[in-house]
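Here is the promised in-class demo. Please do not try to memorize the tokens; focus on the logic of going from shape to residues.
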């Protein structure tokens, strides 16, 4: 049934691209009527959001800009951030845990994330300080869009960090140039410092303009981080061909929405995020299309050309939380995949630059 709706959307897109708007409207109305009666809730939602994006594309209605972040709140049950956010947290912690050694007295995590969340690192750092006692200081630098509505959260989070003898710092970015400037402000302070750059569903947004990705990766190399962790959606939704992009998007997002529906039985905050993402993927072209979701194979090629080499990841040493009980995390050729019934939805990989880290001195 889902394939029928996918094909119907593609046919509508063909008519729209051919200037046959009346025919496209009629076809869309027929499919919409059928979908509302016979499709699953997840299929119906994805069809509706794809159709919405096609209408915006047809009439030049600019879709809302995809929010680059998800709000941070203390109440973990008020909003549902699973499964992707939990996957990114688990795999990032796993990578850092593997890379830490007894000689590291200071840990600096530079976190580019769709959600400003100190708590994701808190228990991990507490564990290492208790078990090994080698970490003497921890700095978490969150580099994120301006979160004026969450000032109280950031203030209270800073207080919690200070109570644990940790430092939390926030830098602001609104453009790739800002990211470059933020990275330029960072330096390795000590020889025994481990530095980690963590990209959490953010890096793909630098593909819209030629050269921006290369510029940012070059700055990361200059920084001399020990490892770079990248978590992204695992899909190929960046084709210049609208019809191909639409068909692949329908399949991918139908799977995502099915996992949200069957696992959480609630309207997750992710659904709002993905609705905006679908609108950008389908309705926009050129630099306006910032949601350029690539497959891991494409990322692998891009990062290798930029001078990074992969750090193989092995199976997780921890049990999956209940929130991921219907998902699976599997190791595949050194990277970790999040599956929903064997369909890959997200991928985590770890990279390093071949040159040794540079110590710049200071306290």
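The designed amino acids, position by position:
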């Amino acid at each position: 049934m889902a394939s029928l709706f996918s094909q119907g959307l593609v046919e509508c897109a063909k008519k729209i691209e051919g200037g046959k708007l009346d025919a496209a409207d009629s076809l869309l109305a027929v499919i919409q009527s059928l979908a509302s009666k016979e499709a699953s809730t997840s299929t119906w939602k994805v069809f509706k959001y794809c159709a919405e994006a096609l209408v915006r594309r047809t009439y030049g209605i600019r879709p809302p800009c995809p929010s680059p972040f998800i709000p941070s709140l203390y109440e973990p049950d008020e909003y549902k951030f699973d499964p992707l956010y939990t996957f990114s947290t688990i795999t990032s912690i796993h990578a850092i845990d593997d890379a830490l050694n007894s000689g590291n007295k200071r840990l600096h995590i530079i976190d580019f994330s769709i959600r400003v969340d100190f708590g994701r690192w808190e228990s991990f750092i507490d564990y290492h300080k208790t078990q090994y006692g080698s970490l003497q200081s921890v700095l978490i630098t969150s580099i994120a869009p301006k979160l004026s509505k969450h000032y109280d959260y950031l203030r209270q989070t800073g207080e919690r960090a200070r109570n644990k003898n940790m430092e939390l710092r926030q830098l602001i970015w609104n453009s790739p140039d800002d990211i470059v400037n933020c990275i330029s402000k960072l330096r390795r302070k000590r020889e025994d410092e481990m530095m980690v750059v963590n990209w959490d569903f953010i890096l793909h947004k630098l593909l819209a303009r030629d050269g921006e990705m290369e510029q940012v990766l070059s700055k990361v190399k200059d920084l001399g981080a020990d490892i770079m962790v990248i978590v992204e959606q695992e899909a190929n939704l960046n084709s210049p061909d609208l019809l191909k992009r639409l068909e692949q998007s329908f399949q991918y997002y139908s799977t995502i929405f099915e996992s949200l529906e069957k696992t959480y039985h609630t309207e997750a905050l992710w659904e709002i995020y993905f609705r905006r993402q679908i609108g950008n993927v389908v309705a926009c072209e050129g630099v306006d299309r910032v949601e350029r979701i690539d497959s891991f194979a494409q990322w692998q090629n891009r990062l290798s050309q930029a001078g990074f080499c992969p750090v193989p990841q092995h199976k997780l040493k921890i049990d999956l939380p209940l929130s991921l009980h219907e998902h699976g995390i599997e190791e595949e050729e050194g990277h970790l995949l999040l599956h929903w019934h064997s369909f890959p939805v997200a991928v985590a990989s770890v990279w390093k630059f071949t040159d040794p880290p540079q110590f710049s001195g200071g306290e």
